[in-house]
Design brief:
- The protein has about 45 residues and is mostly helical.
- It has one domain.
- It is built from three helices and no strands.
- The chain has helices spanning about 5-15, 15-25, 40-44.
- It is elongated.
- The two termini are about 25 Å apart.
- The mean pLDDT is about 85.
């Protein structure tokens, strides 16, 4: 049985959410968004 965190979870912990949001605003990534934000699309 796996006792540690999954690899994807470890990668997400490495990323800075606020830095991701800053870059998204800089390049208007969420401009015409309807359902999922860029962060949610990245996670799914």
């Amino acid at each position: 049985m796996n006792q540690s965190k999954y690899v994807f979870s470890q990668l997400v912990d490495f990323l800075d959410y606020y830095e991701f949001c800053h870059i998204t605003k800089k390049y208007s990534g969420d401009k015409d968004m309807r359902d999922f934000s860029c962060w949610n699309q990245f996670l799914y």
